Amino acid sequence: MTSRLMVRVLVTLVAFAVLARIPVGFDVGFKFDSGLAVIWAFGLLSLVLLTGYVGQISLCQATFAGVGAYAAGMMTATFHVDYIVAVAVGVAAAFALGIIVGLPALRLHGITLAIVTLGIALVFDRYVFQDHAFEWFTGGTGGWSVREASMFGLQMDSSKHLMAAYVVLLALFCLVGLLMVNLHDSGAGRRFRAIRDSELAAATMGVDLIRYKLLAFGMSAAIAGLGGAFYPLVAGNVSPQPFWLFTSLQFAAIAVLMGVRYVPAAALGGAFMAFVPDVLTRFGHGSLFGHQYEISYDWFQIAVGVLLIVQLIALPDGVWGDLRHRVGHARSTVGALGGRRVKVA
Amino acid sequence: MTMLRVRDMTVRFGGIVALDGISLDLNRGEILGLIGPNGAGKTTLFNCISGVIHPDRGSIFFEGHSLVYAPPHVRARFGIARTFQNLQLWGSMTVEENLVVPMDALGRRNTFSDALYLPFSTYAERASRERARAILHVLELDRHARTLAADLPAGIQRRVEIARALAMRPRLLLLDEPAAGLDAQETARLAELLHAVRQRFHVSMLLVDHDMSLVLRVCDYVYVLDFGKLLARGQPSAIRSDPKVIAAYLGEESKQSTGETTTVVAAPKQAAPLLEVKQVAAGYGGLEVIRDVSLQVRPGEVVACIGANGAGKTTTLRAISGMIHPRRGRVMFAGIEVTGRTAERISKLGLIHIPEGRGLFPRLTVEDTLRLVSNTAGHEVDITPAFQLFPKLRERRRQLVGTLSGGEQQMVAMARAILSRPRLVMIDEMSQGLAPSVVRQLFEIIRVFRDEGIAVLLVEQFVESALDVADRAYVFEHGSIVLSGAAVDLRSDRKLVAGSYLGTAVETPAMAAADGNGHRVDPALMEIVSVRVPAKVKRALEQRAEAEGRPTGAVAIELLEKVDRQ
Ligand SMILES: Nc1ncnc2c1ncn2[C@@H]1O[C@H](COP(=O)(O)OP(=O)(O)OP(=O)(O)O)[C@@H](O)[C@H]1O
Ligand SMILES: [Mg+2]
Q1: What is the pLDDT of residues B355-386, one digit of tens each?
Q2: Could you say which DSSP state residue A340 is in?
Q3: How far is B105 from B103, CA to CA, in rounded Å?
Q4: How far apart are CA B437 and CA B153, in angstroms?
Q5: Torsion angles phi and psi, residue A289, rounded to 5
Q6: Position B524 pLDDT exceeds 60
Q7: Pairing relation of β-strands B275-284 and B351-354?
Q8: What does the alpha-carbon distance between residue B45 and residue B22 come to, in Å, rounded to a whole number?
Q9: A332 burial class (0-12, 13-18, 19+ CB within 10 angstroms)?
Q10: Could you tell me which residues come within 8 angstroms of residue B507 by beta carbon, excluding any fewer than 6 positions away?
């Protein structure tokens, strides 16, 4: 067990070291995309916990991220606290909202739960993030802009110190990701998975459904909120647009596309969500055979839809999941060739 | 001493009264039987006791506590464990993990210490795993410990359900049809196991089953339900001869002898085979479950597949009907090669498969499910014959299939197959979950099938009855056919069948004890399971077991025996 833990820690460290270096030497836009990728990866990671482990559906994960972002923005812009405090407040706010959203999930399943969470996303998108009554929280129509920010005394405001923010964010993601992988195999993770596989059996075998479902929603919201809380730092401001309803839907779609049960799939999906649209708009125009063409952002949405259909048919466990199975299968075939025969029950 | 006291329990689902003022007492250390026709409300009563549904009226007291407002997990902490008629294992976990979950759910472990792998959690984890392994050993599930629960055959999953319930160290165990799909010998072994569990763990039990041989053998007292009401209660022997119970549930013993004469006449030997399976191999993932299976079914013939649980009967049927792809070999149906075709295309040719899980759509009503037959048949089909066959379904025609009782669902699956007038029906575990009188009726229907020229391939736990109705039979063992022949011969050759492959019904408890010798539950081991052993001793045991490559439990028993002798 402990040796497995060591391997995981090692893999995480290597992944961190590699990923941290990637944006070095690129332009500011690329660095911004990298930061954004990790923020979205947090959003997807929150679904790995909620949907992948516990089997609950939620279509308002971007709302949690948004609440984290606004709370953090408010704390720095109005109270000028150290940014780490702002992040903590953002996470706490998201956690609290997660618990509240979890309440209907105690009764609802499947489609009905999806619709309720969709409604919550809509309410926040249309009313909370864009309403005068909540100006103290959202900073008005312009949102909060974060010019000066420091974390642990280090200067961290957006344009100049983007790399620093990115590295901190990435380190946090690696840490939380590692914890999530551990959680999966631990006792608590098993109780979560028991709820996913059969709620009926879980309840009658002593798993406190209320506690564990609320915990799952709270933790999931906190993870999404943690990513969101860094948004003001990376982007320099907060606005409702990145956290609107559609981002929530995109989270759900891309989580399924990449493999909703796997932590690395969240990282993959985050990168996909941040880079692909940007690359499309940057390089997606020119002329071909004398015709002008231009690929807009809308093409990204369509591409996700098409990929999702292809994936559901060809890779039912998501891109990452099926990759893993293939590798595992190849390995066992090689093992079988080595003369080991499986005795049949 | 009353342990469980149920009073005036009433449950209604819309217009249906599933339980109507049931009162019941269970004493400490007692095994109480609960029987009754399909849809009588047995599972509903279990659901009330375990807290899954809330009764409209009535009260439950367990060891003096009122349970009315207690949620399910609190009842689990009181010591009430249950198994499910429709299996509810956690399919994506290994068998061992399935046992560990209830152990540490009841141990109130901490989520964060778990995720951080703190020493406290790691230690608790090791202790749980050890106990899980001991329980698995007792139930002879050792070799499945690392298998995913979903990959196991249904019969073994049922045993894992019992193991999982025992992992909770329960004081009251609710068993919902534990013997479904078990053959006679396995049932006898189960009976012994239940006795041993009661003795060692001091567990009281409430047992629902349609296999009367089990109920009569293990229960101290029996309650009979019918239409949600108490029909009778008393000693098992009295219940068996109670005319009310016979009329409502058991049915009259049919005249056995008639079967033999019809058997010989029927099958036209010369006819070309309707189904021909040639050297088929199939399996799942890296596992090959059947190999070199060859069998034939002629038109209008009834063929039985018999063999212990996990012998490969279900897989054979799946490979024939196209639910899985055969890896080698050929399947011919009505002169057409169907190897590797989709299940849908094969069924269009007139081959109907009623799978073990029944293959129904839970969100459709009974009537709509039966109407769907018209769709596959391509012309309008009259569904009234189904209701004549199973009058119970007529009252339930507008109910969703998913909410039917287990037996009622089995009736729907049978009715659907019969309506589609197939050329060959393959039925997996036909009598599973059905009341004895209904089972008897179904065997009659199979005779009718044959008279109408419909062929039947049958997998059946009641070997005797299956051989009575069948023309020929194949005996499966470890994924291949080891014996085949005319049913009459196999029946008279029972010794052969009994000795090496199955064992037929064991008539008396005394015989059962003698017969099941090799599988006796070892009291010493049960002790280990229930008693805490110092960590040092445990570690020593573990090391020794690992060095000798044997299960820890076996080493422990050996040591205990030595101590006893000295
Ligand atoms: N959710 C539900 N909605 C409507 N009717 C239901 C529901 N659950 C159960 N019933 C009905 O209540 C009756 C009792 O069901 P129950 O499952 O308790 O029967 P049972 O005695 O366990 O039968 P079996 O031996 O077939 O398992 C059945 O007629 C069933 O159709
Ligand atoms: Mg039932």
Answers
A1: 887 778 888 999 988 888 877 777 788 888 88
A2: -
A3: 6
A4: 27
A5: 50, 40
A6: no
A7: unpaired
A8: 9
A9: middle
A10: none
pLDDT value at B403 more than 60: yes
d(CA B333, CA B338): 6
Residue B516 phi, psi dihedral angles, 5° rounding: -85, 15
Smallest CA-to-CA distance from B85 within B339, B491, B358, B421 is with B358
Which positions in chain A have a beta carbon within 8 angstroms of at least one beta carbon in chain B? 1-2, 5, 179-180, 182-183, 186-191, 193-194, 196-198, 200-210, 215, 329, 332, 336, 342, 344-345
Asked if A54 and A182 count as a contact pair (C-beta separation under 8 A), the reply is no
Residues in chain A: 345
| A261-283 residue pLDDT tens | 999 999 999 999 888 888 887 77
HEC per residue, B35-80: ECCCCCCHHHHHHHHHCCCCCCEEEEEECCEECCCCCHHHHHHHCE
Collect all residues with Cβ–Cβ distance below 8 Å to A126 and sequence separation of at least 6: none
How do residues B432-484 score in pLDDT, each as one tens digit? Answer: 888 888 888 888 888 877 887 889 999 887 887 888 888 998 988 888 888 88
Q: Is the CB of B404 under 6 A from ligand 1?
A: yes
Q: Looking up tokens 């997996």, which residue turns up?
A: B428
Residue with tokens 């022949």: B485
Token pair for B531: 């008693």
Q: Work out the average pLDDT over B541-557.
A: 69
Q: How far apart are CA B274 and CA B424, in angstroms?
A: 8
Domain positions in chain A are 28-283
Interface test with A, best of B48, B87, B90, B478 (most A CBs within 10 A): B90
Q: What is the mean pLDDT of chain B?
A: 80
Amino acid at B322: G
ipTM: 0.84
Number of helices (H), then strands (E), belonging to chain A: the values are 15, 4
Between the CA of residue A326 and those of A265, A313, A320, A329, A333, what are the distances in Å? 15, 16, 10, 5, 10
The CATH class of A28-283 is: mainly alpha
Could you tell me if B411 and B38 are in contact, meaning their C-beta atoms sit under 8 angstroms apart?
A: yes
Amino acid B259: pLDDT: 41
How large is the C-alpha radius of gyration of chain A?
21
In this structure, which residue's CA is closest to atom 17 in ligand 1?
A: B405
Judged by DSSP in three states, B428 sits in strand
Contact A200/B143, CB-based, under 8 Å?
no
Q: Which of A141-155, B13-27, B66-80, B510-524 has the lowest mean pLDDT?
A: B510-524
Q: Which residues 47-76 of B have a C-beta within 8 angstroms of A? A: 50-52, 71-73, 75-76
Alpha helices in A22-60 (DSSP H): 28-47
CB contact under 8 A, A201 and B73: no
CB A181 within 8 A of CB A8: yes
Whole-angstrom distance, CA of residue B529 vs CA of residue A332: 35
* Sign for the pseudo-dihedral over CA of A322, A326, A327, A331: positive
- Percent of chain A at pLDDT exceeding 90: 43
pLDDT at A201: 94
Dihedral sign from CA coordinates of B296, B297, B301, B307: positive
Distance CA B27, CA B48 (A): 18
Q: Please report the residues numbered 244 through 263 in chain B whose beta carbons come closer than 8 angstroms to any beta carbon of chain A.
A: none
Rounded CA-CA distance B474/B482 in Å is 8
Alpha carbons B379 and B364: distance in angstroms, whole number: 20
Distances (CA, A) of B197 to A200, A265, B191, B297, B520: 25, 46, 10, 44, 12
Mutate to test the pocket of ligand 1, among B35, B404, B437 (most ligand atoms within 8 A of CB): B404
Q: From the list B81, B90, B109, which residue is nearest A198 (CB)?
A: B90
